[in-house]
Amino acid sequence: MRFLLVDNFDSFTYNIVHYLEQCDVDVHVVTNVDVRIDSLESFDALVLSPGPGLPNEAGKLMPVVAEAMRQNKPILGVCLGMQALAIHSGDSLYNQEIVKHGLAEEIRLVKKDSLFYNDIPEVIEVGLYHSWAVELTENSPFIPTATSESGVLMSMEIAAKKVYAVQFHPESILTPTGLRMIQNFVGIVRED
After folding, report:
1. Helix 178-190 × helix 13-22 angle, to 10°
2. Active-site residue (options: 23, 88, 157, 171)
3. Residue 114, φ and ψ in degrees, nearest 5
4. Per-residue pLDDT for 1 more than 90?
């Protein structure tokens, strides 16, 4: 399988690459300024890395998301990637009162049958590196799958389209079950 990983200039990008490579995925990494939207068709799935700033400031990230959604491409969005998926779907972002940077926190699964969280406990520890958070609208296509203790949305999915997103960093050492999540996503993509 071939995955395209859009690098939003984050120091964690290659941690995600290494996790994907452990799942026998051929990973092609391109920055959000160099990515060619017409290249999406040649990949089995798209991964959106974390990164600084807001989705609309991240090179071609938003047009890539729009095209991948149009093609019904399986997608995993991490942190900024989740925020980009939310914005594309008409949801909104808000600035948290307390910036979470390099903090480990417990989150709770609110959709226990999510394939993304297969074989993962209901309460897990994750690594957080974000100041912005997602707020879903009433008409959002996304289903919440996990929240923090303070009610911040930590993950969401459109399972029928194989689109998954996490606000936390599964590739961080602060997320002990992160590799399992990546393995689950790869398994979901492989199902075709």
Report:
1. 60
2. 171
3. -65, 130
4. yes
| Residue among 23, 79, 130, 157 flagged as catalytic | 79
Average pLDDT over residues 163-170: 97
Residue 57 among the catalytic residues: no
C-beta neighbour count of 155 within 10 angstroms: 28
Q: Under the phi-then-psi rule, with left for phi > 0, alpha for psi from -120 to 50, and beta for the rest, what region is 59?
A: left
Range of the domain at 33: 2-191
- What pLDDT is attached to residue 160? 97
- Is 88 designated active site? no
The pLDDT, as a whole number, for residue 129 is 87
Number of domains in the chain: 1
Q: Is 23 a catalytic residue?
A: no
Give me the catalytic one of 41, 57, 169, 191.
169
Looking at per-residue pLDDT, the higher value among 179 and 99 belongs to 179
**CATH value at residue 61:** 3.40.50.880
Question: Can you tell me the distance from the alpha carbon of 115 to that of 3, in angstroms, rounded to the nearest whole number?
Answer: 19
Tokens of 83: 């925020």
The tens digit of pLDDT for each residue in 94-133 reads 988 777 777 889 999 999 899 999 999 999 999 998 889 9
